[in-house]
């Protein structure tokens, strides 16, 4: 009986490793981490960024898988939410940029000026929608 559990554990660990390697390679391929490093002019800390991404992914999986409660207080929850939102926003914009979504859309609509304002209001709309969702649906 225990051999079956060991085998299933090994299969689960191998599958999880393969999926996480795919996710991390997607994040690197999209170029979020290199872009953040370039914008912040902290190229000397590349190893720190890579370790932070891998450690964040691994710890997030552990806390999610084993349902470990974190009693951090409202300040750290807000900081985490802000950081996670910024990262997801950067990932979404980088993916859209790779697919040339915005340049194609703006060219087809004939928009030549105010592109930064359009992007800002798109981001603000996304933020307001997320805040509305969490304010109305998280208590249920």
Q: What percent strand?
A: under 5%
In sequence order, what are the helices and strands, one letter per element? HHHHHH
Output the structural class: mainly alpha
Beta strand count: 0
Identify low-pLDDT runs.
none
Indicate the percent of residues in helices: over 70%
What is the end-to-end distance?
Answer: 41 Å
Average pLDDT taken over every residue: 79
Radius of gyration: 19 Å
Summarize the structure.
This protein has 140 residues and is mainly alpha-helical. Helix content is 82%, strand content 0%.
Give a structural overview:
The chain has helices at residues 2-30, 32-40, 46-65, 74-98, 101-109, 115-137. It is mostly helical and 140 residues long. The model has no long low-confidence stretch (mean pLDDT 79).
List keywords for this structure.
140 residues; mainly alpha; extended
Topology:
Layout: H1 2-30, H2 32-40, H3 46-65, H4 74-98, H5 101-109, H6 115-137
């Amino acid at each position: 009986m225990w051999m079956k559990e060991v085998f299933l554990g090994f299969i689960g660990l191998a599958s999880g490793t393969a999926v996480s390697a795919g996710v991390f390679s997607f994040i690197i391929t999209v170029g979020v981490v290199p872009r953040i490093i370039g914008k912040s002019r902290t190229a000397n800390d590349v190893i720190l960024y890579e370790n932070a991404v891998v450690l964040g992914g691994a710890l997030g999986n552990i806390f999610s898988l084993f349902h470990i409660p974190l009693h951090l207080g409202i300040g750290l929850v807000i900081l985490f939410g802000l950081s996670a939102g910024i990262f997801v926003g950067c990932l979404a914009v980088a993916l859209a940029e790779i697919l040339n979504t915005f340049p194609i859309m703006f060219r087809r609509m004939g928009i030549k000026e105010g592109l930064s304002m359009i992007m800002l209001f798109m981001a603000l709309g996304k933020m307001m929608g997320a805040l509305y969702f969490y304010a109305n649906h998280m208590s249920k």
